[in-house]
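Q: I have two molecules that I believe assemble together. Could you output structure tokens for the complex as a whole instead of separate predictions?
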Amino acid sequence: MKLVNRILYFATGNEHKYREVASILNEANIKVEKFLVDRIEIQDNDPVKIAKFSLEMIKDAPTRIFNEDSGLNIKSLEGFPGPYSSYVYKTIGNEGIIALLDRKSNREAVFYSIIAYKDENDKIHIFSGETKGLISEKITGGEGWGFDPIFIPINEEGNKLTYSELGFKLKNTLSHRSKSLEKFSKFLSR
Amino acid sequence: MKLVNRILYFATGNEHKYREVASILNEANIKVEKFLVDRIEIQDNDPVKIAKFSLEMIKDAPTRIFNEDSGLNIKSLEGFPGPYSSYVYKTIGNEGIIALLDRKSNREAVFYSIIAYKDENDKIHIFSGETKGLISEKITGGEGWGFDPIFIPINEEGNKLTYSELGFKLKNTLSHRSKSLEKFSKFLSR
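A: Yes, here they are, computed for all two components at once.
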């Protein structure tokens, strides 16, 4: 069943994320409404398990609801901050990440995005996307939120700009989140 | 009902923690058996909520079971690593904490311990303890595990040694965990 022109519910309390996701899905004619919820997230190293659990724990959820979890895995920090990216951003921030990499030669990182979607039969589907990149030496200006000012996505053209410097429009052509959303929107348009 | 000489179950997979807790409780004649379980912990800023939730999520748990969550709150890092202390220790380690405090003048920290205990009537009781201290400039040697080599507990005698340098015996006279356990053991001996 085609879900184009139907409303989906996005379980999030993050206004930045809501706008980014809604804007990408709207381009595929998918309408998204925010479903405000006090999400219960588990501590686990598996982001798929976290996303599924969260969705299952929402009480009185409408059908056609989804959530999105993203995280940054920094290679020389054993994957830190991973599933705790949001907490780490709120506490030590981009400044902290830069300090942690001060004496490290390897600045490789992967940004991942996991979408868990509960369909009209209560079946859960997972869509994932990831973008490889480098942590910048400095916090850059520009648009963006979260770790956007320190993440330089790698592409075939040899990009050297962070998500923030690229700006929303260009970021959305190569971001981890746009990749998971693309799979999701293809699934919805079946 | 006095629980001295009865067996309590400690839900943990951490051998270090088990030995520390069992040794302190044994001195009060309380016997502790390890209850191995794949704990489900939620992501939350409230450690009491985490401990309670974890205990409630254990399926087929015996009665008289408890768990213990501890965490380090570093003042100049907005409370980081807090409830994610275990993950942070495994990834960036003590070296990472030292790097994060490199340019900070305030090295104050609080180590807290929360015990959640489910009694024979399935009622949950909470016992907490905390110890104020400072993060050391260097990782010290000595006994201990986790953040022990970088945490200097403050006491009236003007202690300048880390938990590790103090060694298990002295650590247990002033640690956050010994304080929550003391309240717990008083409760059990009522």
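A: One point stands out. Chain A has six helices and eight strands.
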